[in-house]
Write a structure and sequence with these properties.
Elements (H helix, E strand, L loop, with lengths): L1 H5 L2 H56 L3 H9 L9 E5 L5 E6 L23
Antiparallel strand pairs: 1-2
Length: 124
């Protein structure tokens, strides 16, 4: 405290302005980082929802004619998206109709009954 009482007004003002600017910059970085994380998650869910609709629209004929091989080919088009680990098409009764599993990934695709589940590392 003695340091602060002995310093000149100019130094005190400089210190206060520097601390205030640093706090404002830190707050701005935190807000921007939070926004980026939320926007990324929202964009990821939107992108995956669009892909799910495309796969669903392309799978209707295979489901109507009970042709899992055709549906497997439709699902294999998902290999173009490197971040998609797996996908499943279910029948109306809830039975598994076709499965896509990227075999070259370390993290394995696990079937789940949840419609959408989001964790730190994946959206299922």
């Amino acid at each position: 405290m003695r340091f602060f009482t002995r310093t000149s007004i100019k130094r005190k003002q400089t210190l206060i302005i520097t601390l205030t600017s640093g706090a404002a910059l830190l707050l701005a970085c935190l807000v921007l980082g939070t926004y980026e994380i939320l926007a990324f998650r929202q964009a990821m869910v939107s992108n995956l929802s669009t892909l799910a609709e495309i796969v669903a629209n392309n799978s209707t004929a295979a489901l109507d004619f009970n042709d899992p091989k055709s549906n497997q080919e439709t699902l294999s088009a998902l290999q173009a998206e490197a971040h998609i680990v797996g996908a499943v098409v279910y029948t109306r009764e809830g039975q598994i109709f076709a499965v896509y599993d990227r075999g070259d990934r370390i993290d394995r695709f696990v079937l789940t009954n949840d419609l959408i589940a989001m964790s730190d590392q994946a959206v299922m």
